[in-house]
């Protein structure tokens, strides 16, 4: 059995793995796990990942969860070009630093804006208040300022002159608010130029292909979500966005 990647490209971590594998010509079988249909909650998928989350990897009898662990596994197994996860101690430390920081910052605040703007009104049947939107947008802008000042600075990429896993992980996360209709790059020229360079480095066509679904997410309707997931999502969203 070859390498299998269990993914849904509506998920930011899944997109980072998909783009990384494709841009490095890593052979894999794409196993589509449709989150909105609840396919990640089935007993069949639970055999691959007991946590019932995507992404997941299966390599023969070996299974692996968590996107960063999967990215590093792929980089090491397939000996991808050094710039992705540099052998240089300090450059690698920069990548590790960002990957450690991003979870509750870029990922956390970007996801919160997406959930608040797209899914919350859909699930509650109530329009989103301008005050609530302003609040989650401000939270995101605080971490965007930190990203530019701390991690990007005046460099082309986070670790220096070449793209790394840190850049890829960062950009796919920032596309989630874009999918919700908030163009965070519009008034941030430094960020926009960095985005252009990352897309160019991984392949613009591949990047666009991976983001086709999420860029249509603002058109999502409740009938596209499995009925048994609606209440679960509603409970989780109300808790996260309170």
TrEMBL record:
Residues forming the GST N-terminal domain are: 1-82
List the catalytic activities from the record. RX + glutathione = an S-substituted glutathione + a halide anion + H(+)
* UniProt key word Transferase: yes
Q: Name one GO cellular component term.
A: cytoplasm
Q: What EC number(s) would the UniProt record show? A: 2.5.1.18
Q: Which residues form the GST C-terminal domain?
A: 88-220
**SUPFAM superfamilies linked to this entry:** GST C-terminal domain-like, Thioredoxin-like
Q: Name one Pfam family in it.
A: GST_N
Classify the main location.
Answer: cytoplasm
> Where in the cell does this protein reside?
Cytoplasm
GO biological process assignments: glutathione metabolic process
Q: Which domain of life is it from?
A: Eukaryota
The record ties this protein, via InterPro entries, to: Glutathione-S-Trfase_C-like (IPR010987), Glutathione-S-Trfase_C_sf (IPR036282), Glutathione_S-Trfase (IPR040079), Glutathione_S-Trfase_N (IPR004045), GST_C (IPR004046), GST_C_Theta (IPR040077), GST_N_Theta (IPR040075), GST_Theta (IPR051369)
Q: Which UniProt keywords apply?
A: Cytoplasm, Transferase
Q: Give the Gene Ontology MF terms in alphabetical order.
A: glutathione transferase activity
> What family is it from?
Belongs to the GST superfamily. Theta family.
Q: Which PANTHER family match?
A: GLUTATHIONE S-TRANSFERASE THETA-1, PTHR43917
Quaternary state and interactors: Homodimer.
Q: What is this protein called?
A: glutathione transferase
Annotated source species: Otus sunia (Oriental scops-owl)
């Amino acid at each position: 059995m070859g390498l299998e990647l269990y993914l849904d490209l509506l998920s930011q971590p899944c997109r980072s793995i998909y783009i990384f594998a494709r841009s490095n010509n890593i052979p894999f079988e794409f196993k589509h796990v449709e989150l909105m249909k609840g396919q990640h909650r089935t007993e069949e998928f639970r055999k691959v990942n007991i946590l019932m989350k995507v992404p997941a990897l299966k390599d023969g009898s070996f299974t692996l969860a968590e996107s960063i662990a999967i990215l590093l596994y792929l980089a090491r197994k397939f000996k991808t070009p050094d710039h992705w996860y540099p052998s240089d101690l300090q450059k690698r430390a920069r990548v590790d630093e960002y990957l450690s920081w991003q979870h509750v910052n870029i990922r956390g605040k970007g996801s919160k804006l997406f959930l608040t703007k797209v899914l919350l009104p859909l699930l509650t049947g109530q329009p989103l208040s301008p005050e609530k939107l302003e609040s989650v947008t401000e939270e995101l802008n605080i971490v965007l300022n930190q990203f530019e000042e701390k991690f990007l600075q005046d460099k082309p990429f986070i670790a220096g002159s070449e793209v790394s896993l840190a850049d890829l992980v960062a950009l796919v996360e920032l596309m989630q608010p874009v999918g919700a209709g908030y163009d965070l790059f519009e008034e941030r020229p430094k960020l926009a130029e960095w985005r252009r360079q990352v897309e160019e480095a991984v392949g613009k066509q591949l990047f666009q292909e991976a983001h086709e679904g999420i860029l249509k997410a603002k058109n999502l309707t409740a009938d596209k979500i499995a009925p048994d997931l609606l209440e679960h999502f509603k409970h989780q969203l109300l808790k996260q966005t309170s």
